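yo, Dehydrogenase/reductase sdr family member 7-related is done. seq:
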Amino acid sequence: MILALIGAFFLIYILFYAILTYILDCDIQLAFYEKFGKSIDKLKGKVVFITGASSGIGENVALILAKHGVKLILAARRENELERVKKNCLEISDGKLSNDDILVLPMDVTDISSHQKHFETASKHFGRIHILFNNAGRSQRAMWEDIDLSIDKQMFELNVFSVLNLTRIAIKHFKANGGGHIVVTSSVTGIVAFPFSASYDGSKHALHGYFNALRTEKLKHNIKVSILCPGPAFTNFLAECFTDKPGEKYGLTTKPTDKRLTGYRCGELCAIAIANELNEAWMGCPPLISFLFLSVYFPNLFNWFVISMKNYYVNLN
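structure:
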């Protein structure tokens, strides 16, 4: 009788999860915190350093945070685009932020040697940085066997090594100031690899290994680590993708009929995950989350599904 009750409870639990993950645009934990967790307002007055802030997810997270009175360091290569984002952030803040509360920091994250100088500039301007949001990165589209090895190296220099170096600088700052929060933009492809983006998949899997290790190491230093895993969103990410050849961009743009999160919704979900210091957060148009849930918790069933759908290509970011 007891075993039957346990079995029934387990079945109900699985069905509950299956239904929710099929209809939600984020994982169940993130959905719970959106309804019942800490408000983004909790971050008001804190300083957030955002790389890749000139477009896409970085830009949208900056707008959401500015709306809630969060002070910002906007870092990317294109200064004119950063100034545009700053202007929009000041407008959306509705008086919560002044000009000095948003620092534009032109920066190429692949120039590792410049990281210390840029971080010192930012920390000197504000006195303290509370959150580092490692968001800069690029995706890829290519056949596995055609990828030039230089592409793998460039992908890791941008998506992994630049993130590690800047984070190590930030950690020293956080340890000296009583703690802080490291946030990393990974991808759903960091959870389960998808075809035709092998170098990108590999770089995102690497981030999970590095930052899951960091989280357990730094608990005693009050340093939190969050890994954000967005799926496809309406950004310029696809156009900027690496291919299999050096110096080449994929060049395609998204279509209005594509099944993607809006940039704003993606930014909103990221901001909620940051405010609640979630270890990991998944987000994407339904039924993507159920697909990820299946891959993690029922790998054998997932493998059968992949084999049965071997001719179906899912265009993930």
